[in-house]
Amino acid sequence: MITLKTEFQKIKRRKIGLTMAALTGIQFVWFLWATKNPDEKELTQGWLNLLYSLPLLNVIMMPTIMSVLASRLSDLEHKGNTYKQLRTLRRPGILYDAKVLCGFLFVAAICAAQILFLLVLGYCYHYTDTLYPHYYLSAFLLNLGCCFSLYLLQLNLSLLFFNQMIPLVVGLCGSLLGLILMFIKMYSFLPWGGFLSCTLVSMDWNVETRVVTYFYREHSAIELCAIGMVFIWIAIFYMTGRVAFTRKEV
Predict the structure, then answer these.
(1) Taking a C-beta distance cutoff of 8 angstroms, is the pair 102, 17 a contact?
(2) Please, which pLDDT band fits residue 68 given cuts at 50, 70 and 90?
(3) Domain ranges across the chain
């Protein structure tokens, strides 16, 4: 806990929370634009639409957002070249765990803010379809898992490279890859495509009537495996990152 408290003290004046709020705010603005002036049909499946749209937006934006978060939490030690001094005060594994937990709290706050915003948005529009709280709770947990896996990946890269442009470019490429994966399949075993696997709502587009119908998704066996892969990535990134950071030459 002392190491975690120290981690927050180091970033107190770096306005990381404000940066994350600004990037997440872009998503909120997109939702406001995409859902404005709903017709009667859209009102009858508004809650479904929000659950469908969130992971699709996250698969594009979250790789970049997580790369920014990880970079902001790691570049201070690189700039000050303080890793050797820190290791005299705390074991490397504890330092790594503190950064992981610090980032996890930011990620959890972002995911909670997203779900809260969708709930407020839905109530403001008075959507007429039934709101199932357990679906939104599941969406929060799955979204948290996907974001956290990407954060761990980006944190490992940010701790490995002095030049923070390298992990940032990886994050941007991950966003581009997520956009490409959207047009291939609605599931993926890659860490950047976890949001697609964890989508709880599917849609059907009627070409003749040009009407979109949303419905709760029934995951196949391979899609459930893809969801499980998200949490396997978390374990892989955490264990490899911790070992690499512990053995890193400073």
Answers:
(1) no
(2) very high
(3) 2-247
Token output for 143: 């979204």
* CB 107, CB 151: distance < 8 Å: yes
Rounded alpha-carbon distances, angstroms, from residue 131 to 44, 116, 124, 138? 11, 13, 13, 13
- Give the burial class of 145: count Cβ atoms within 10 A of its Cβ; 0-12 exposed, 13-18 middle, 19 or more buried: buried
CA distance 202 to 224: 15
* Count of other CB atoms within 10 angstroms of residue 198: 25
Answer for the pair 48, 116: CB distance below 8 angstroms, yes or no.
no
pLDDT in tens, 123-138: 999 998 889 999 999 9
Amino acid letter, residue 101: L
Query: What average pLDDT does this structure show over 72-99?
Result: 71
pTM of the full structure:
0.91
